[in-house]
Amino acid sequence: MPHEVVVLALNDVVAFDLGVPSQIFGAARDAGGRPHYRVRVCTPDGGPVRTSAGFAAVPDHGPEILAEADTVVVPGVHGGAALEDGTLEPPVAAALARRRPDARLMSICTGAFVLAAAGVLDRRPATTHWAHADRFRALHPAVPLDPDVLFVDDGDVLTSAGVGAGVDLCLHVIRRDHGSAVANRAARRSVMPPWREGGQSQFIERPLPAPAGSSTAETRAWALERLHEPLDLTRLARRAGMSVRTFTRRFRAETGLSPAQWLVRQRIEEARRLLETTDLPIDQVAGRAGLGTAASLRQHLHAAVGVSPAAYRRTFGAARV
In terms of Cα–Cα distance, which of 99, 96, 101, 131 is closest to 114? Predict the structure, then answer.
């Protein structure tokens, strides 16, 4: 059966965001043309909602279908209690309470305000549109926000930056679920690049002030280009121009992870990319990803996704259709 995606549309929903999940997930098909996802749209009461584009959207479903969802997507909003004071209107809270406990949650743009108001982002890394970063931090200080990235994948909760970054997030989820070949086909059908370089910081009109006077974001970007090199805490702190203690504190505040945890996560993602897109031997994949040996790669990959490198490549490799 296709993976069930339910989009929860709220009043003042961003019209572009509302259409993205149906378009991108709907383009994900297997080699026989069968859809990998079924996307349905609902509202908290089953009635129409206002959109940011000057028209109303009339859903086919009410909140009852949230109980059937494998993934729940909350598009961005241009108004409402979540954006104004960090709370949820009772119908919205009741609708979100209908979701299964194991359902994956996604937000696009300011939809992150809704997830944060529901309490699911506390102490978890997240992002939202850069223009709303200051408001988000003020309303939700317990959420380690990174306004520089296009999206954040924290396992069962994923958030994206503004508008077009919702496309990046949906393509990333398809790649995570079904591998690069399926994601690339979905991107081509949608006339979109399968992967965009850089983060949303390149689109910011003026740099946002870092919350603590300086940020570790540049050092993180620098480290991503050097995952194959030794990157101990002293080297990272020196690159950031901070003491080890200050760097560690600010790094955790911005990402929700220690530098070591963050590096392992990034190296696992790089190893997955190499397994999917190259035919390099496993030991070379481990070396290029900075995980050292094939044994280390097997241990980390099994802990992250539950399979060996060879099994992962068979499932998600470039030859898979």
Answer: 96
Neighbours of 47 (CB within 10 A): 12
Query: Cα(137)–Cα(287) distance, rounded to whole angstroms?
Result: 38
User: For residues 182 and 188, what is the distance between their CA atoms, to the nearest angstrom?
Assistant: 10
**What are the pLDDT digits (tens) for 166-182?**
999 999 999 889 988 88
Read off the pLDDT of residues 40-56 as tens digits, 9 standing for 90 and up: 999 999 999 999 999 99
| Phi and psi based region of residue 241 (left: phi greater than 0; alpha: psi -120 to 50; beta: remaining) | left
CA dist 181 → 158, 176, 228, 238, 316 (Å):
22, 11, 25, 39, 8
Residue pointed to by tokens 């909350």: 74
Query: Is position 42 annotated as part of the catalytic site?
Result: no
User: What is the per-residue DSSP string for 165-189?
Assistant: HHHHHHHHHHHHHH-HHHHHHHHHH
Helices H / strands E in the chain, number of each: 14, 8
| Nearest residue to 300 (alpha-carbon basis) of 292, 200, 42 | 292
Catalytic residue among 41, 109, 157, 158: 109
6 contacts 40 by C-beta, under 8 angstroms:
yes
Instruction: Please tell me which of 13-17, 149-153, 159-163, 199-203 the model is most confident about, judged by mean pLDDT.
Output: 13-17
Radius of gyration (C-alpha) of the chain in whole angstroms: 20
Residue 159, pLDDT > 90, answer: yes
